[in-house]
Write a structure and sequence with these properties.
Keywords: Hydrolase, Metal-binding, Zinc. Its cofactor is Zn(2+). InterPro entries: MBL_Glyoxalase_II, Metallo-B-lactamas, RibonucZ/Hydroxyglut_hydro. This is MBL fold metallo-hydrolase. By secondary structure, the protein is an alpha/beta fold. It has a domain at about 5-155: Ribonuclease Z/Hydroxyacylglutathione hydrolase-like (Metallo-beta-lactamase, Chain A, 4-Layer Sandwich). Helices cover about 25% and strands about 30% of the residues. The protein is built from 6 helices and 14 strands. The protein has helices spanning about 35-50, 65, 70-75, 85-95, 170-180, 200-205; strands spanning about 5-10, 15-20, 25-30, 50-55, 80, 110-115, 120, 125-130, 140-145, 150-155, 155, 160, 190-195, 200. The strands form 3 sheets. It has a 6-stranded mixed sheet, with helices on one face. A 6-stranded mixed sheet has the order 7-8-9-10-13-14. A two-stranded antiparallel sheet has the order 11-12. The termini are far apart.
Length: about 220
């Protein structure tokens, strides 16, 4: 059975996830740990659970989701995997990170690329890659079909959606991603977003003021 641990890191209150199971293998998604105390919190959890980090994944590469990439890569000697269309997003962080107050940001490059339909495997688990642009040009999400869990990044939030006013963002594209890729998942799918509380696909289809589906007789 897949287990999930959430950490809320950095001043932008970003959700970092560690996914693991009984084999002790794990993946780290969107490490937002910036300062030493946040890095220690993540490191201590992994050590306490005796986990073996297999890879590092980014849903997308805005600053708040990649602050800990360098730390994780160096500490656990793992590869960073992203969507190729977000490589430019990742490379841009070094230029604007100081404007957000992240003067000690250490850049890191992707080691490989993920595409729609790819499968990430660790332990006894598998994550399907969904391409969901709109918030960022190379935004992806990770779906565990067996457990019906979606690590969604900054696409769909509890009664909200990701912003589209950043470089590479597009509102119509984002709504299309939600309707065509996320709202076709089972209603019981639990969504763990990049910020804020978790939700479900069914709840957002009914109630989200930005993208809820409407039905006519």
């Amino acid at each position: 059975m897949m287990q999930l641990e959430t950490f809320v890191f950095n001043p932008l209150q970003e959700n970092t996830f560690v996914l693991y199971d009984e084999t002790k293998e794990c993946v780290i998604i969107d490490p937002g740990c910036y300062d030493k105390s946040e890095q220690y919190e993540l490191e201590e959890f992994i050590a306490h659970k005796g986990l073996i980090v297999k890879m590092l994944l980014n849903t997308h590469c805005h600053v708040d989701h990649v602050l800990g990439n360098y730390f994780v890569k160096e500490k656990y000697k793992v590869k960073l995997l992203i969507h190729e269309k977000d490589e430019i997003t990742l490379k841009a962080v070094q230029a604007y990170a100081p404007a957000y107050g992240f003067h000690q940001y250490q850049p890191s490059l992707a080691d490989g690329f993920l595409n729609e339909g790819d499968t990430i495997s660790f332990g006894n688990q598998s994550l399907k890659v969904l391409f969901v642009p709109g918030h960022a040009p190379g935004h992806i999400a990770f779906f565990n079909e067996k457990e019906q869990i979606l690590i969604g990044g900054d696409v769909l939030f509890y009664n909200s959606i990701g912003r589209t006013d950043l470089p590479g963002g597009n509102y119509d594209t984002l709504i299309q991603s939600i309707h065509q890729k996320l709202f076709t998942l089972p209603d019981t799918t639990k969504v763990y977003p990049g910020h804020g509380q978790d939700t479900t696909i069914g709840f957002e289809k009914r109630t989200n003021p930005f993208c809820a589906l409407t039905y006519s007789n």
